[in-house]
């Protein structure tokens, strides 16, 4: 059985807020196991886990893979800025 996602702190940190949104997307998708998401995305389970941890800026490939693995629309995430004014999702 997979471990539950770590609850992120309520903070104004934009990276944490972005990660919280990724966690919400995964929850809406029925909390698929990271191993299944890895199969669908081509990313490692560690990369997927780090994506929703809110500790570092993500590459577009990671965001795209995570969103696709959750059945989401990557295009709707492409213009999002996890840290407005400081950085964008790395492409």
UniProtKB/TrEMBL annotation:
Record protein name field: XRE family transcriptional regulator
